[in-house]
Structure formats: structure tokens, C-alpha cells
Design a protein that fits this description.
By secondary structure, the chain is an alpha+beta fold. Helix content is about 35%, strand content about 20%.
């Protein structure tokens, strides 16, 4: 057994105080696997330990909100289709900044793949992708490499999945030279009465692994995503996941086919922290536990340890809980699509995550301590300052020409490898992006990415998105969802600004929850 030293604790991005809390929760020293599980579940990426207290104060409910925070994706009611069947829009926005900086193509591609899985995990077929990208100065040494890789990754994954990228925005600024932002969004459509959730309720139900085999890629991806960008980033390349959109397309079709039956109790994407986060979160939401046998996990590489399997972030994988006796019928569907299917455990009423490997119990942890028991911090916030007064409305022609010729304002043919017309479902419109459904539902996405604690800037993205929709003649519900792959907010000055912006939105919930209607 590996002795847990202060150096090992620090390498897992845990503080000395957090390690002491773990020892107190367990009443003993954790082993290396248990330490690894706590490290990813308590990371900023998974636990939101620095922003959770503010996020909980934002308004999240309204008559048209079917599912707010806490699930794989948000869900809003969009009314019936032409046949009178009630429909919902299922959507998710998430950043994949750090992986995209380290390995631009795979980082961006797996960011897109991950949010598409979040959407179809809820039972929705993805119909559109969008993105918002921020790069450093156009003449910076790394910018061209990052732009070409990120754009190719975003477009390549979406195109292979057959999901159109209907729009987005790209800008360049020296402030992003070493801290690019890659934000991806997916929207899907589902029938309102056929939404799937992740709470694994009940005891004795089979826990099923489906999708790609598990490899060593992406290990500690969740803790890496919570770290700062620095000169050693290149050494973290093995922590970036590797995507396979063709396998995900098969996984999508197999999952939707199984969802047409009543076999599924709960289902969740294996995203950040892989098998660890999916099993912990499903068990916690269901108020029970999981007993997993890692010998049954489909493996891509030989000799993988329990630590590697639990912390791997290999892509295109899902975890589901089925009704007893439905395993063979479900397996037949996944066999038809050529996707791995394995029963790897059972749900329990113990409230514990038990991990077995090679006949031995390798970890035995209380689920509640891994999820709701994660630490929560009250970080310092930068003071809010009033916006500067507007300058006189005088346009200097020379300055205007320089502005519109800047890379962030010029034409974006370099981003044209994304396909906006896949499957003939899309009608391009200037300034707003439309997805053609039987109701001609339209959507637009803008997000705040400028690192300023200016009070007015927190609202600008929401206002711009609503105005874009109004320009297209759309009645809108001002609903939005944005996920942050935040850095360590205790060490990052940028974290101060993010918390301040959150605090300002929290002080004005009226703007976030209002239903916007123009007569």
C-alpha cells in the first residue's frame, strides 16, 4: 500500500486542511485510490467549492423551466409541435479551456462531444451546436496554432455527429494569450414526457457501462481543469481526453433506441472524473450506494489499476441503471450498434461507494462526503465599481477603420470548416441562428467572457442575445445555462472577477428570471 505523504496530497490538488477533513470523514487514512476519488470529486471542476454558494442564490425556477441546475442539462418547455405533442428544449453550455490550450484539436473536440452526451443523456436528439471562442493577439506565437486546432476540433466532432454548428463568435485579445476560452453549446429537442434523469433509486438494480472501452487518457482531467495555465502545461498533454465522434454517433443512436422502452431507471454521461463522478452523483441523487466490480469494465489497455479505471476520462462512455431483468434486451440493442455493454455492479441502500478489483475491496467511501460533503469556500470578491461615463458620441473615421479591420471584427472564413447545414434542418439568418423544427423554434447564445468586474458587463450578453432574437421576430424566454471550468479561485486573480460578476447577477435576479415578451 502506498503511503500518503504531503507531496502526494499536494499532487492531487488537495490542501492540508482538506486532507484532514478526509481523514476525519473516514476515521482513518485513505488509500491512494480513495485519495484520488476525493481529489476529483472535491476539485473546483466537480464541486464548485468556490462559487457554489453564489450559484445557489441565482434564480433557477419559472413556469417554463422543466429542469434547472443539478442534472446533465437544462430543460425548458417550448410548447407543443404541429401534432400537439408537448416539446422541450434541452441545452448545455460548457467550457473546455485548459484541455484546448494544451491539445487544441482534442481539447475542443471532446468539449463538443461531452456536451452532446449531456444533452442526449436527457433523452433529447441534438439538433444544433454553437460556440464562443477567445484567443490571444493574432500575432502571438501560439495563436495561429491554437485557432487552427480548436476550430478543426469543434467542426470535426460536430460534423461527424451530423449536428450542425449554427453559429458562434470568435475574438482576439492579448489578455487571452495564455488563457484561451473555448465555450461550446448544444441544443436538443425531446418530448416533454420522455425526459431521463440521473437519480439511481432502488436497491439491487444492475449498474451498466456502455460506450467506448476505458483507457489511460484523461486521468486527472478534472483536477487539471481546475489548475492554472503555466509553463508546464505541455507536460499535462496525457490528461487531455481523446475523442471518437463516430463511436459517439453509435452510442447516441443506441441510447435513444433503448430510451424508447421503459428499461432505464437512471442514466448519466461519464464526463469529468469519468466513472467516479457518474457513480457518486447517481448514487447521491438516488439516496443510495453503488457496489462496482472493475474486473467487468471494458478496458482498452492491459494491466490497468483500479486508480486508473476510476479516474480515466476516456470519452464516449455512459453509466446507466436498468430495471432488473432488462439487461439482455438492452444488450441486444447495443450489440446491434457495435457498442460495448457490460453490467459492472449493482445499486445498494448502503449510501457507500464500494470498489472491487481482482477480488479485493479497493475503496469503501461514504457517497454523501464525496458530493454534498465537499468543502465550500467564501472567497474574497473585488469591489463593484460604477461604469465609466460614456464618451461624447463622436466617431473618428480613422479609428473606426482600424477597429473594423481588427482580427476580431473581420470575416471568419478560417472558421468555415464547421457545417451549418447538416441534415437540411437549418435556415441561416443574419445575427441570429435558427433551427428548423415543426414550431420553427429559434435560439441565440451569447456569453460574458471579458475579464472585467464592471457591473454593466455582467448583463450585456443576456441583453444582446434577447435583442438578436427580437430582431428575428421571436418571443423569448430569457433562460440560459453556462458552466465554468474554473481555475483554482484561491490562487487566481481572474477568480476574483468571476465571483464579483456572479455576485452582481445574484443581486439582480429580476433580470435573469424575467420572461421577455414584445407585443
Amino acid at each position: 500500500m502506498t503511503a500518503i505523504t504531503p507531496e502526494i496530497v499536494a499532487a492531487h490538488k488537495l490542501t492540508a486542511d482538506e486532507y484532514e477533513k478526509i481523514r476525519t470523514h473516514l476515521g482513518r487514512e485513505p488509500n491512494l485510490l480513495e485519495l484520488g476519488i476525493f481529489s476529483v470529486m472535491w476539485s473546483e471542476h466537480c464541486s464548485y467549492k468556490s462559487s457554489r454558494r453564489l450559484l445557489k442564490k441565482l434564480p433557477t425556477s419559472a413556469p417554463w423551466v422543466v429542469q434547472g441546475p443539478g442534472e446533465n442539462a437544462g430543460v425548458i418547455d417550448i410548447g407543443p409541435n404541429a401534432d400537439g405533442v408537448p416539446l422541450v428544449a434541452v441545452f448545455k453550455m460548457e467550457s473546455h479551456n485548459h484541455p484546448s490550450y494544451i491539445e487544441p484539436y482534442q481539447g475542443a473536440a471532446t468539449g463538443v462531444g461531452g456536451i452532446m452526451r449531456d444533452v442526449f443523456t436527457m433523452g433529447a436528439r441534438p439538433v444544433a451546436n454553437m460556440n464562443a471562442l477567445r484567443f490571444g493577439a493574432w500575432d502571438h506565437a501560439k495563436t495561429r496554432h491554437l485557432v487552427s486546432g480548436v476550430v478543426a476540433g469543434v467542426g470535426g466532432y460536430g460534423n461527424c455527429m451530423g449536428v450542425p454548428t449554427v453559429g458562434g463568435e470568435t475574438n482576439f485579445d492579448a489578455r487571452y494569450n495564455n488563457n484561451i476560452l473555448v465555450n461550446a453549446m448544444t441544443v436538443g429537442v425531446a418530448e416533454k414526457h420522455r425526459i431521463f434523469y440521473s437519480a439511481a433509486r432502488g436497491s439491487g438494480n444492475p449498474v451498466v457501462y456502455v460506450g467506448s472501452k476505458t483507457g489511460r487518457d484523461g486521468i486527472h482531467g478534472a483536477t487539471m481543469a481546475s489548475a492554472e495555465f503555466d509553463g508546464a502545461s505541455a507536460e499535462k498533454r496525457p490528461t487531455v481526453q481523446v475523442g471518437d465522434p463516430f463511436t459517439e454517433k453509435l452510442l447516441l443512436e443506441a441510447c435513444l433506441e433503448l430510451m424508447a422502452s421503459d428499461a432505464i431507471i437512471a442514466i448519466q454521461d461519464m464526463g469529468a472524473a469519468g466513472l467516479t463522478s457518474s457513480s457518486c452523483e447517481m448514487a447521491a441523487k438516488g439516496g443510495g450506494g453503488f457496489d462496482l466490480d472493475l474486473d467487468r469494465v471494458p478496458q482498452r489497455e492491459e494491466g490497468m489499476t483500479a486508480y486508473e479505471m476510476m479516474l480515466s476520462e476516456s470519452q464516449e462512455r455512459m453509466l446507466m441503471v436498468l430495471k432488473p431483468g432488462r439487461e439482455e434486451a438492452a444488450k441486444a440493442i447495443f450489440d446491434k450498434w457495435g457498442v460495448d455493454f457490460a453490467v459492472i455492479g449493482v445499486t445498494t441502500n448502503s449510501g457507500r461507494l464500494v470498489i472491487r478489483h481482482k477480488g479485493a475491496v479497493e475503496a469503501d467511501l461514504p457517497v454523501s462526503r464525496l458530493t454534498d460533503g465537499a468543502p465550500s469556500y467564501d472567497r474574497a470578491q473585488a469591489p463593484l465599481t460604477p461604469p465609466a461615463p460614456l464618451a461624447d458620441p463622436v466617431v473618428v473615421i480613422r479609428d473606426a477603420i482600424v477597429s473594423v479591420k481588427a482580427p476580431g471584427k473581420s470575416r471568419e472564413e478560417y472558421a468555415a470548416i464547421v457545417n451549418a447545414l447538416i441534415e437540411d434542418r437549418v435556415s441561416p439568418m443574419p445575427g441570429v441562428d435558427a433551427v428548423g423544427t415543426s414550431k420553427a423554434n429559434k435560439h441565440s447564445a451569447q456569453l460574458y467572457v471579458r475579464l472585467r468586474p464592471d457591473a454593466q458587463d455582467s448583463f450585456a450578453p443576456l441583453e444582446e442575445a434577447v435583442m438578436n432574437l427580437k430582431a428575428a421576430g421571436v418571443v423569448t424566454d430569457a433562460d440560459f445555462h453556462s458552466s465554468e471550468n474554473t481555475v483554482d479561485l484561491a490562487e487566481s486573480p481572474g477568480g476574483l472577477f468571476m465571483l464579483t460578476a456572479l455576485g452582481h447577477l445574484m443581486q439582480s435576479p429580476d433580470l435573469c428570471s424575467r420572461r421577455w415578451i414584445w407585443e
